[in-house]
Automatic annotation (TrEMBL), chain A:
Cofactor: thiamine diphosphate
Keyword Oxidoreductase: yes
Alphabetically ordered keywords of this record: Oxidoreductase, Pyruvate, Thiamine pyrophosphate
Enzyme Commission code(s) on record: 1.2.4.1
Lineage top rank: taxon: Bacteria
Keyword Hydrolase attributed: no
InterPro entries: THDP-binding, Transketo_C/PFOR_II, Transketolase-like_Pyr-bd, Transketolase_C
Species per Swiss-Prot/TrEMBL record: Fictibacillus halophilus
Positions of the Transketolase-like pyrimidine-binding domain: 10-185
GO-annotated molecular function: pyruvate dehydrogenase (acetyl-transferring) activity
Protein name as catalogued: Pyruvate dehydrogenase E1 component beta subunit
Automatic annotation (TrEMBL), chain B:
SUPFAM superfamilies xref list: Thiamin diphosphate-binding fold (THDP-binding)
Catalytic activity: N(6)-[(R)-lipoyl]-L-lysyl-[protein] + pyruvate + H(+) = N(6)-[(R)-S(8)-acetyldihydrolipoyl]-L-lysyl-[protein] + CO2
Dehydrogenase E1 component domain location: 37-324
Record carries keyword Oxidoreductase: yes
Function: The pyruvate dehydrogenase complex catalyzes the overall conversion of pyruvate to acetyl-CoA and CO(2). It contains multiple copies of three enzymatic components: pyruvate dehydrogenase (E1), dihydrolipoamide acetyltransferase (E2) and lipoamide dehydrogenase (E3).
Protein name: Pyruvate dehydrogenase E1 component subunit alpha
Superkingdom assignment: Bacteria
Cofactors: thiamine diphosphate
Pfam family membership, one: E1_dh
Signal peptide per UniProt: none
Oxidoreductase as UniProt keyword: yes
NCBIfam families named among the record's database cross-references: PDH_E1_alph_x (TIGR03181)
Annotated source species: Fictibacillus halophilus
Gene Ontology molecular function: any one: pyruvate dehydrogenase (acetyl-transferring) activity
Length: 331, 354
């Protein structure tokens, strides 16, 4: 017996809004705060309509101060609320880094669990939408290297809503990164009510035996294109959307590379200190003897994300990913 | 601007009345309670310095001289209120509910030192500068949203007023009318940097003007001035009349920490000589003598009983069972993610424990 589920075709940004709406309806202590999140509905309209539905005590326009938004959210979170704090862009999070690093992520550990800060920080990120400088930074590794933080990145509308619900329900602070390129690039059937996409679990987007491609967020579209080109050349790719960057889905990563023996990791963040290095290390720990070729990475450069006239040079392209796939298969 | 924020005082350096507004409330019972708490914290503080010198605890952060500021303000807070201390505010936190053992455990490097007794809302000490002003604002804002009349108090030094979070904390509290008391202890130095190099403004209280909130400057070595003016600020917060910035002008005799040498940047002889005018315990003792509240035997007995209490707390701290190394792993998240779980297992294995 199956139960029909009502769905709507939503973009990712609409799915994010829907995730917040569903959780705000269910839990009175869930509040949204940030700059422009009220009447304006957020710079990307992610909070559109929420203030009309839930009022100004639950959808709060704050002063323009990132540390202030995160610092007060910490106080609210440890005193009974579930704040969803919006950063307008991940590239603007730096003034709040101190609050996240020295307080949000470690209060549970400092007090052996006596005080906790169950909060969600939402931040659009990544290049490819021709945004002004700083707006396009992809600095997720700053946070995956921060003990006490979970870091997640959906790549499609369904995952965005289900993962946001899980992030809001999570008892620990979660950095919820929203790839700007995916905000309105596709529409997808999204269930109306509440559902969870669990944190910590990757998704296999395509089955293949020759090489595994690991990516997340906006790079999923790029690697799917590359995988199609590779298939035309007779190379079948296992494509894994990591979805959660901390903690990584160790089982799926190991299971896939043990099957293919080859891996290409793609992210637009800088290569040095990037998540690719962590994944290589994980493969080394779990699957060294299965590997048939050195692992390739296609990443952003160890440079600031350039202004948009040059950003296409910075971003990993499907062509570069195909070259990496060929390199590992021809090794 | 300095004239607009006069240093409020109830009893002067000689223990004489300067403002008799609260004369009816300044009973012998209240006076003896304040004196007891100040002496208790001073003996604790001196013990802390000694324990560090003997290598029995780690780096310690002394506060001798600031007892009136911390205790007077903490006494103004009520059951269920919130306290956000820095690493220096042991006198405030012990007044509000921390046990002496807990405070010693903190300086022994134990996580347990961050945990308040059940029902006491004392946040762990903030180690970065000024970041805790925002937590106090958030917690107070939460109480306002919940419709309670609870308030927050947050402690910080003069150096903290140069940080962005000081301004963000005041601004958020002002915009959202959060019931929070910003309690500054101005002791004239941020480690080695004197206040003249920290800010051009002559007072810290005047910074309240920019945020359209009450600013109060008071003699931080006069425990009555601190207690009654903080109590007024807390009452104002409870009534929904918004936050207050209090500047308590005080003086600390010792170093920033036991790892620091104040003789490099401050004339310590001059500092010690200031005891005649700034020592809050000496001042209260003079007041008690002037008001016939002082009894030599009471003073000696108190000294003895507090010494015994502190020695007992030291013994408890030193006899506390060593923490298990799994405490490193088991409280980072509600549920251990696999990297921490596998690191925990590997560490146990390396020790031959499994």
């Amino acid at each position: 017996m199956t139960t029909a589920v009502d769905t709507k075709k939503l973009t990712m940004v609409q799915a994010v809004t829907d995730g917040m709406r569903v959780m705000m309806k269910e839990h009175e202590n869930v509040i949204v705060l940030g700059e422009d999140v009220g009447q304006n509905g957020g710079v990307f309209r992610a909070t559109d309509g929420l203030v009309a539905e839930f009022g100004e005590n639950r959808v709060i326009d704050t002063p323009l101060a990132e540390s202030g938004i995160i610092g007060t959210s910490i106080g609210l979170a440890m005193n009974g609320f579930k704040p969803i704090a919006e950063m307008q862009f991940l590239g603007f999070i730096y003034p709040a880094f101190n609050q996240i690093m020295t307080h949000a992520s470690r209060i549970r550990a400092r007090t052996l669990g006596h005080f906790t800060v169950p909060m969600v920080i939402r931040a659009p990120f990544g290049a490819g939408v021709r945004a002004p400088e700083i707006h396009s930074d992809s600095v997720e590794a700053l946070f995956t290297g921060m003990p006490g933080m979970k870091v997640v990145v959906p790549s499609n509308p369904y995952d965005a809503k289900g993962m946001l619900v899980s992030a809001i329900e999570d008892p620990d602070p979660v950095l919820f990164l929203e790839p700007m390129r995916c905000y309105r690039s596709t529409k997808m059937d999204v269930p109306d009510g509440k559902y969870n996409v669990p944190l910590g679990k990757a998704a296999r987007l395509q089955e293949g035996d020759d090489v595994t491609i690991f990516a997340y967020g906006a790079m999923i579209e790029v690697v799917m294109k590359a995988a199609k080109t590779a298939e035309e050349k007779g190379i079948k790719c296992d494509v894994i959307d990591l979805r959660t960057l901390y903690p990584l889905d160790k089982e799926m990563i190991a299971e896939s590379v043990q099957k293919t023996g080859r891996a290409v990791i793609v992210h637009e963040a800088p290569g040095t200190g990037g998540l690719g290095e962590t994944i290589i290390s994980l493969i080394n720990d779990t699957s060294f003897l299965y590997m048939k070729a050195p692992i390739e990475r296609v990443t952003g450069f160890d440079t600031p994300v350039p202004m948009f006239a040059l950003e296409d040079h910075y971003l990993p392209s499907a062509d570069r990913v195909v070259q990496a796939i060929e390199k590992v298969t021809q090794f | 601007m300095e004239k607009l924020f006069p240093k409020m005082q109830i009893i002067n350096e000689n223990g004489e009345w300067n403002d008799e507004t609260y004369r009816g409330e300044i009973t012998e019972e209240l006076t003896k309670e304040l004196y007891t708490k100040m002496l208790r914290s001073r003996l604790f503080d001196r013990k802390g310095v000694n324990l560090q010198r003997q290598g029995r605890i780690g780096t310690y952060v002394p506060f001798e001289g600031q007892e009136a500021s911390q205790i007077g303000s903490a006494m103004a807070m009520g059951e269920g209120d919130w306290m956000f201390p820095t690493y220096r505010d042991h006198a405030a936190t012990m007044t509000f509910g921390h046990s002496l053992k807990t405070l010693f455990l903190y300086w022994k490097g134990r996580q347990e030192g961050c945990i308040p007794p059940e029902g006491k809302n004392i946040f762990p000490p903030a180690v970065p500068i000024a970041s805790q002003l925002l937590h106090a604002t958030g917690a107070a804002w939460a109480e306002k949203l919940k419709g309670t009349d609870r308030a927050s108090i947050v402690y910080f030094g003069d150096g903290a007023t140069s940080e962005g979070d000081f301004h963000e904390g005041l601004n958020f509290a002002s915009v959202f009318n959060a019931p929070v008391v910003f309690f500054n202890q101005n002791n004239g130095f941020a480690i080695s940097v004197p206040i003249e190099k920290q800010m051009k403004s002559k007072t810290i209280a005047q910074k309240a003007v920019a945020y359209e909130m009450e600013g109060v400057r008071l003699d931080g070595n006069d425990v009555f001035a601190v207690y009654f003016h903080t109590r007024t600020a807390v009452e104002r917060a409870r009534k929904g009349e918004g936050p207050t910035l209090i500047e308590a002008v005080t003086w600390r005799y010792g170093a920033h920490t036991t790892a620091d040498d104040p003789t490099k940047y401050r004339n310590q002889e001059e500092s010690v000589n200031r005891r005649e005018t700034t020592d809050p315990i000496l001042r209260l003792e003079r007041f008690m003598k002037n008001e016939n509240m002082w009894d030599e035997k009471w003073g000696a007995d108190l000294q003895e009983s507090l010494t015994l209490e502190i020695e007992a707390a030291v013994k408890e701290m030193e006899e506390a069972q060593a923490p298990h190394y799994n405490d490193v792993f088991d409280h980072v998240f509600a549920e251990n993610p696999w990297p921490i779980e596998s690191q925990k297992e590997a560490y146990a294995h390396s020790r031959g424990d499994r």
